[in-house]
């Protein structure tokens, strides 16, 4: 799934920025709050008890936001609905601080609180 998201965003950036230099495309990727939100989902899914039950809101849903803090680093606040160890569907809010140091799609978790 991570590959599809990154590939789709890369394709979108390429289509929108054909006149952009590689450096400008990397900077646009570096500053993309939507990309940060989508990537945060992968890191959150990895920590769930039942990852197949994860249901994330859209990137523009109420309660979902991101903030670019500079140096290819983003803060993301969002939530996921997923089953817990007892099989109950619960909503878990999360905060993720992510870094994309080269703007090329290699993301790292700086901090993740669920």
Architecture blueprint of SSEs:
Layout: H1 2-16, H2 22-30, H3 33-45, E1 65-70, E2 73-83, E3 89-99, E4 108-113
Antiparallel strand pairs: 1-2, 2-3, 3-4
Helix pairs in contact: 1-3
Please give a handful of descriptors for the protein shown.
about 110 residues, alpha+beta, four-stranded antiparallel beta sheet, 3 helices, about 30% helix
Number of domains: 1
Rg (C-alpha, Å):
15 Å
The SSE string, one letter per element, is: HHHEEEE
Give the number of DSSP strands.
4
* CA-CA gap between termini: 21 Å
Question: What's the short story on this structure?
Answer:
This protein is 32% helix and 30% strand.
Could you please describe the fold and organization of this structure?
The chain is of the alpha+beta class and 114 residues long. The protein has one domain (2-113). The chain is 32% helix and 30% strand. The protein is built from 3 helices and 4 strands; from the N terminus they run αααββββ. It has helices at 2-16, 22-30, 33-45, and strands spanning 65-70, 73-83, 89-99, 108-113. A 4-stranded antiparallel beta sheet has the order 1-2-3-4, with helices on one face. A hairpin with an 8-residue loop joins β3 and β4. α1 packs antiparallel against α3. The longest helix has 15 residues, at 2-16. The protein is elongated. The two termini are 21 Å apart. The model has no long low-confidence stretch (mean pLDDT 86).
């Amino acid at each position: 799934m991570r590959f599809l998201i990154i590939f789709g965003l890369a394709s979108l950036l390429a289509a929108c920025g054909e006149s952009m230099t590689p450096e400008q495309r990397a900077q646009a990727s570096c500053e993309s709050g939507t990309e940060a939100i989508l990537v945060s989902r992968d890191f959150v899914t990895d920590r769930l008890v039942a990852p197949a039950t994860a249901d994330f809101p859209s990137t523009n849903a109420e309660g979902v936001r991101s903030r670019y803090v500079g140096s290819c680093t983003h803060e993301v606040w969002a939530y996921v609905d997923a089953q817990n160890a007892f099989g109950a569907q619960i909503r878990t809010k999360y905060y993720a601080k992510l870094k994309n140091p080269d703007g090329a799609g290699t993301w790292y978790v700086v901090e993740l609180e669920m």
